[in-house]
């Protein structure tokens, strides 16, 4: 039906976030986050970062939230493509963020799980693991689940980042957990 290629070139490693029958959002290795019209493939806006955008964006409440290899998590206005806020981290962000209530949860190559306020990007808390975290966090029932290269699966309290439990899974965890919301168990 249509094809889209950004004017500046670059590869797409980010998965698109398709919000409705009108727009999708996708990051590119050229450092831009794009809003693309799903009807005709035209570009609505391009938001520049200073690093590759391999994180898959999410859209919630007029915010498009995405991480970049420039060490920032961005919140971009979905209509205008203008910056709302950015949160600084210690290293690149390639995983996708998760949102629960008023907070955004994401991980970074600096070995931290972050919780930031969706309104202003202020860091509420961050939890250190003892290995690289590449997987996207999952939020359910007041807890964040995330695995690490330290071979530990963590369940962390959304309120303060306190560890509820941790389990050695005997191997590095690169993929996101799947939550069984019927049985209530993390898989």
Structure report:
- About 0% of the residues lie in helices and about 45% in strands.
- The chain contains no helices and 18 strands.
- Strands 1-2-3-4 form a four-stranded antiparallel β-sheet, with no helix packed on it. Strands 5-6-7-8 form a four-stranded antiparallel β-sheet, with no helix packed on it.
- The termini are far apart.
- The model has no long low-confidence stretch (mean pLDDT about 90).
Tally the helices: what do you get? 0
Distance between the ends: 38 Å
| Sheet having the most strands | 4 strands, antiparallel
Into which percentage range does the β-strand content fall? 35-45%
Strand order of the largest sheet: 1-2-3-4
Name the helix and strand elements from N-terminus to C-terminus, one letter apiece.
EEEEEEEEEEEEEEEEEE
Number of strands: 18
Helix content: under 10%
Low-confidence regions: none
Global shape: globular
Mean pLDDT: 90
What's the alpha carbon Rg, rounded to whole Å? 16 Å
Structural class: mainly beta
Question: Notable features of this structure?
Answer:
about 190 residues, mainly beta, 4-stranded antiparallel sheet, 18 strands, globular
Quick overview:
It is built from no helices and 18 strands.
Q: How would you summarize the topology of this molecule?
A:
Blueprint: E1 17-18, E2 23-27, E3 32-37, E4 43-48, E5 58-60, E6 63-67, E7 72-77, E8 83-88, E9 98-100, E10 103-107, E11 112-117, E12 123-128, E13 138-140, E14 143-147, E15 152-157, E16 163-168, E17 179-180, E18 185-186
Antiparallel strand pairs: 1-2, 2-3, 3-4, 5-6, 6-7, 7-8, 9-10, 10-11, 11-12, 13-14, 14-15, 15-16, 17-18
């Amino acid at each position: 039906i249509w094809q889209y290629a950004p004017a500046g070139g670059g590869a797409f490693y980010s998965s698109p976030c398709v919000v409705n029958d009108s727009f999708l959002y996708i990051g590119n290795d050229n450092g831009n986050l794009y809003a693309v019209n799903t009807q005709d493939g035209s570009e609505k806006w391009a938001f520049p970062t200073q690093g590759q955008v391999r994180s898959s964006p999410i859209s919630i409440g007029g915010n498009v939230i995405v991480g970049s290899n420039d060490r920032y998590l961005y919140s971009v206005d979905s209509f205008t493509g203008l910056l709302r806020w950015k949160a600084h981290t210690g290293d690149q962000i390639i995983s996708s963020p998760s949102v629960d209530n008023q907070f955004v949860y994401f991980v970074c190559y600096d070995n931290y799980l972050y919780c930031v306020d969706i309104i202003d990007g202020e860091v509420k808390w961050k939890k250190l693991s003892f290995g690289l975290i590449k997987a996207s966090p999952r939020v359910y029932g007041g807890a964040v689940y995330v695995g690490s290269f330290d071979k530990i699966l963590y369940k962390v309290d959304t309120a303060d980042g306190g560890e509820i439990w941790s389990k050695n899974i005997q191997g590095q965890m690169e993929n996101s957990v799947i939550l069984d919301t019927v049985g209530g168990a993390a898989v």
